[in-house]
Specification:
Length: 719
């Protein structure tokens, strides 16, 4: 078989592969080239469909064409990396390799502005296709100027240059145009191959899917822990209190003299550092227990029941102009997390202002596992909690719902109402023990600060863009659809996959993404040190899977940054000889949850039966009844586990009903399983076994009601 003398390497995101791409490939093929399409993973700011789905669309589109092929994914090729390009030339050592790019890439891509090196992009022959619709010019003078700039840029390329122009009907096809047409259920057969159109519509791809990742916005909240109490600061803090306390700092006089007295302050950076709320707390020493409590009944209880270092929270005060419940939750979590990192094991709360209205604060305390301690003063009671071995939950349910549905009032209210019920149910698993709830927004901001500091870049986006030397690599759910300011951000797409018997699981590539070893090789091609990022590091199943792959490719892990770190997770990092930093450190973590994982269709873990269906609906398992027995909750009563499961399904029903109602109002049609990808970022469905198929024309809430019915049938046998 005769080998071709000319090979065209055509890289691109192809999201999706359009008739414009196909015409370019055909035009190049007709010039005597063998064309290889490479599905690019290096456009890190784009929010692309999984690699294998994009490849399926390409395969359908080029099935009727000769001499146009897909380039193997085993060889990730970053055109900015001379090592990758050297391998590309070696793979086609029998032919002259031409790189296919648009004229806008020649003008704007960073790879063409880098220093010329052996095997760099400047040493390759090129096929350059004109993209007039990309150019900003509309008048002849500016167009002429841009043409001159292109000619100058082409002079930096050593090899042969072939220039092509597309017919006008293909020049205007864009990914944005295709996506908006899909959202409106319009015919797109004039934009992409008809087979590909059918595949996209049948499987629910590209529904309300943004083209680019969201940039993490500038830091809006600042958290301070103060130990030196200046009069000016005390006056500023007192000013947010209700009258008459807002004009009198004398209330702090006794507090500031206490051992390890501290004040945690939450400020709004967007409002010039305005105080949103603050909390005051100190350490209780065993020999000063009565002086702190002034209550014999309470001190007797604490002597018999408390353990370890004791924390006294003397007050949580929230600015009256803010959302009291949200700010109180954040303040309480921050105080307890700060204290856990310093090995406190028991917490007591009592407001230092005897007649201050703390009804909502008490409600927030109870949702974290606090309970009322016996006391002689019922009007200003004491609350206590064992924090030696807490549970943790990340509040992330809203993050998995797409805009604009997620921002509607009814959906937000449904999530907030459901959240309180879920928090209350979790406190019943281990009564008297702490359940910490982490605000996802605060978690993101704290982690972003640490990532940007490690990468030596500011937290606000710089214009023109200047990127730090390191690369942020999320390897879980957190930040995987976001971009950290001034930082190359590229995810490793992983998923915990359970086997049908639920006795085993493995960590593999997320369905329809490249295998993990190939994803790691792709990260290697960026040629940067990496900052690994995840929401929590406790048992470390994901990092254990990735560690040998990273070492095999000799990738420099500059640091690992996680949201929540346990002592077990820290030990794992020490074993792997890796540097780790966290937003929160919880030494002894009993169990951890993400809010979304309780809710079918919204969250969960994949269930592996040897294959995944084509459509955008992932068979999954939620670790609640009736889907499986949550055996990881050792020591919890059957009643508490049943109650948690029932609350989770009731919450799912309420949230999904709110979503369905809003969808009906917006689009004047019912939300059915076929279109659930339009409202959820990772649509899932509970796996009920082989040959148990869903009716894609049914509304999701019908199936949630079925699961709730099934659970309630089992109630009598469980306890």
């Amino acid at each position: 078989m005769e080998k071709p003398k000319k090979v065209a390497f055509f890289p691109g995101t192809f999201d999706p592969f359009s008739l414009s791409h196909k015409e370019i490939a055909k035009a190049i093929r007709n010039l005597g080239f063998e064309v290889y399409l490479s599905v690019d993973e290096f456009s890190w700011s784009k929010r692309t469909l999984p690699n294998l789905i994009r490849k399926n669309i390409i395969s359908m589109s080029i099935a009727d064409e000769l001499d146009i092929y897909l380039y193997p994914e085993d060889y990730p090729t970053n055109i900015a990396n001379p090592t990758d390009l050297k391998l590309l030339k070696f793979n086609f050592d029998y032919a002259e390799v031409h790189i296919v790019v648009g004229s806008d890439v020649i003008l704007n891509a960073s790879s063409y502005k880098l220093e010329r090196l052996p095997y760099s992009i400047h040493t390759f022959s090129h096929v350059v296709f004109e993209r007039k619709n990309i150019l900003s010019a509309t008048d002849s003078f500016t167009m002429e100027k841009e043409n001159e700039l292109l000619k100058e840029a082409l002079k930096n390329i050593d090899g042969n240059i072939v220039r092509l122009a597309l017919p006008p009907q293909y020049e205007d096809i864009s990914s944005t145009q295709i996506r908006s047409s899909i959202d409106e259920n319009r015919d797109i057969s004039m934009l992409i191959d008809p087979l590909a159109q059918r595949y996209i519509y049948e499987n629910g791809f590209y529904k309300s899917e943004p083209q680019y990742k969201s940039l993490i916005q500038s830091i809006s909240v600042d958290i301070q822990v103060v130990e030196d109490f200046e009069q000016k600061l005390l006056e500023e803090a007192a000013s947010i209190l209700a009258a008459p306390y807002n004009i009198d700092t004398a209330l702090f006089n006794d507090f500031v003299k206490k051992p390890s007295a501290r004040m945690l302050i939450l400020r709004d950076e967007n409002e010039g550092g305005k105080i949103l709320g603050f909390s005051v707390f100190h350490r209780v020493l065993s020999h000063t227990l009565y002086q702190d409590m002034q209550n014999s009944k309470t001190t007797d209880y604490l002597r018999n029941n408390s353990i370890g270092k004791m924390l006294m929270i003397d007050g949580i005060f929230v600015n009256r102009e803010t959302d009291i419940e949200v700010i109180a939750q954040v303040l309480l979590t921050e105080v307890l997390s700060f204290s856990l990192a310093k090995d406190y094991e028991y917490a007591v709360y009592r407001c230092l202002l005897g007649n201050y209205d703390v009804t909502r604060i008490h409600e927030t305390l109870k949702l974290q596992g606090f309970f009322e301690i016996p006391s002689e003063n019922s009007e200003n009671p004491f609350f206590g909690v064992n924090m030696s071995n807490p549970c943790a939950m990340i509040l992330d349910a809203r993050a998995f719902i797409k805009e604009p549905i997620k921002n509607t009032e009814s959906v937000k209210k449904a999530i907030i109402k459901a959240r309180k019920r879920m928090q209350s149910a979790l406190t019943q698993l281990y009564p008297g023990n702490l359940v910490l709830s982490f605000n996802r927004h605060i978690l993101y901001e704290t982690m972003t600060r640490k990532i940007c500091k490690e990468n030596a870049v500011p937290t606000n986006a710089i214009k023109p863009r200047q990127l730090g030397p390191a690369m942020c690599v999320p390897y879980g759910n957190i930040l995987n659809k976001s971009v950290v300011p001034n930082t190359v951000t590229k995810s490793l797409h992983t998923e915990k996959m359970f086997y049908p018997d639920m006795k085993r699981f493995d960590v593999n590539a997320f369905p329809h993404y490249l295998d993990l070893d190939i994803q790691v090789r792709m990260i290697k091609s960026f040629n940067r040190p990496i900052i690994l990022v995840d929401d929590i590091l406790h048992k470390g199943y994901r990092i254990k899977k990735l560690d040998p792959l990273l070492k095999k490719e000799s990738i420099e892990v500059q640091k690992t940054v996680v949201g929540i770190l346990s002592a077990k997770g820290k030990e794992l990092m020490d074993i792997q000889n890796r540097d780790v930093e966290s937003a929160y450190f919880i030494p002894k973590l009993k169990a951890w949850f993400t809010e979304s994982s309780f809710y079918p269709y919204i969250g969960g873990d994949a269930l592996w039966r040897g294959y995944f269906p084509q459509r955008n609906l992932l068979p999954s398992i939620n670790l609640i009844l009736p889907f499986t027995a949550p055996t990881f909750l050792t020591g919890a009563s059957k009643e508490a586990i049943y109650n948690m499961s029932e609350v989770a399904l009731e919450n799912t029903l309420d949230i999904m009903t709110a979503i369905e109602n809003e969808y009906q109002l917006m689009y004047e049609r019912s939300l059915i399983l076929k279109s659930i990808g339009q409202v959820l970022t990772i649509p899932r469905c509970p796996d009920h076994g082989k040959f148990m198929n869903y009716d894609y024309n049914a509304v999701p809430s019908v199936y949630i009601k079925n699961d709730l019915e099934l659970l309630r049938r089992l109630r009598n046998i469980l306890f």
